Amino acid sequence: MGKPTGFMEYSREKGKEQPPLERIKNWKEYASRLTDEALQIQGARCMDCGTPFCHMGMEIRGSAAGCPIHNVIPEWNDLVYHGKWKEALDRLLLTNNFPEFTGRVCPAPCEGSCTLAISDPAVAIKSIERAIIDKGFENGWITPRIPAHRSGKKVAVVGSGPAGLAAADQLNQQGHTVTVFEREDRAGGLLTYGIPNMKLEKEVVARRVQLLADEGIHFILNTEIGKDVTADELKAQFDAVILCTGATKQRHLHMEGSESEGVVLAMDYLTSTTKSLLNSNFEDGQFLDTKGKNVIVIGGGDTGADCVATAIRQKCKTVFQFGKHPQLPENRDSDNPWPTNPQVYKLDYAYAEADAKYGRDPREYCIQTKKIVADSNGRVKELHTIQMEKMISDDGYVYFNELPGTEKVWPADYVFVAIGFEGTEHGIAEQFGVQITNNRIKANGKTYSTNVEGVFAAGDARRGQSLIVWAINEGRNVAESVNAYLLAQAIVQ
């Protein structure tokens, strides 16, 4: 695929980015695409590797390896190299319902599994993917696909994140009438309110939602199942129900002072910021403003990084991000071999911005918060921490030892808690009477069916917190099962 010697002739080039000190002045996407000519060169780097690992889509040691939706990456790389953009779009849409999302915010496990990545920088798969879909919209190649026939069957999808949208898209194209219920005021789930605008502009999400609506999918917003509409009403009105409610139950801190004013869950902070931006460009004041404040983010993952980038744009005084693990190595460790997703040190967008503004990477490693101290009014004023040392026992058990003498006090006006998600919220599942195991809706791994007839579950609600591509994969798979279920119903009737 691509030019046979392209990987030897050309270097990897990623999409253009606004300089950090410029982009923190606005809330626009910080990355843009390369020229068509440059992207063709990047496509030329795709090797004729015989057995491509980029689209194998599996988990190795709990980490994604290759593309979970099995994008036929070498094929559209080759088509882009030859300038056949429309044909590349057709190939891309065979497997991916929403390339404009994955091309922007997916961590690209496909690139970690690229054969070229064994010894050289991987093919710029993510950049090429985004360019293909963006050109599709710009050139008018993407238009509403109206199903020729309707089956007479109705499906309710609860939740409009990537899993719910993918399921709705697939089932609508199969001729079923689909209604998506969303409790927020905008569709998109975490695509809308969980990912900041500078990574994924909401016009991109709204454009896709409008396209799905134009194709016949009904969206009912500001509607919470169990409160505004009961589970029994849904089951009576629809032939099948799919629960795609996500893993939105956030983990809380449990320590002295964690109830202090100013200690805020990360998603609450990010959601309020995006809502205010979209509703009024911050004129309504309905957001947490960190201007001139000392900010600490607890949690070393991507959500924490998004809090860092958001606080920087709000002109915070200082910002630090606490993580319990050591700094990642510059290169793969022996226990992180190709084709697993590389766990290596990177200066991602938020950290590059902090480094440019404050002169340092905001991350603190192997650090443990011991307590949060509030002032006389109950408002957080400082954090007390201690450094830790990661240890591995003879039987492979990982534990952390505190290091005496490394205690430190950090001034803090806001503490954003970004330590992950426990799983799905139980209320809706309990309304339907579906079983929950380990904070996940229990659904068959092949059919996605729950213990309740006609009720299915997919996405993070079923598998736990994961990547957008896994959510799309689950949405496509549950749609296939629901379609088979509906066809079987029709035969019986």
Question: What secondary-structure arrangement, pairings included, does this model have?
Answer:
Elements: H1 6-9, E1 16-17, H2 20-23, E2 31-32, H3 36-44, E3 58-60, E4 63-65, H4 73-81, H5 85-93, H6 99-105, H7 109-112, H8 125-138, E5 154-158, H9 162-173, E6 177-181, H10 190-193, H11 202-214, E7 218-220, H12 231-237, E8 240-243, E9 249-250, E10 263-265, H13 266-280, E11 294-298, H14 302-313, E12 318-322, H15 349-358, E13 363-364, E14 367-374, E15 380-392, E16 398-402, E17 408-411, E18 414-417, E19 421-423, H16 426-432, E20 436-437, E21 440-441, E22 455-457, H17 460-463, H18 468-492
Helix pairs in contact: 3-4, 3-8, 4-5, 4-8, 5-8, 6-8, 9-18, 13-14, 14-15
Note the main attributes of this structure.
493 residues; alpha/beta; Fumarate Reductase Iron-sulfur Protein, Chain B, domain 2; FAD/NAD(P)-binding domain; 3 domains; five-stranded parallel sheet; 18% strand; globular
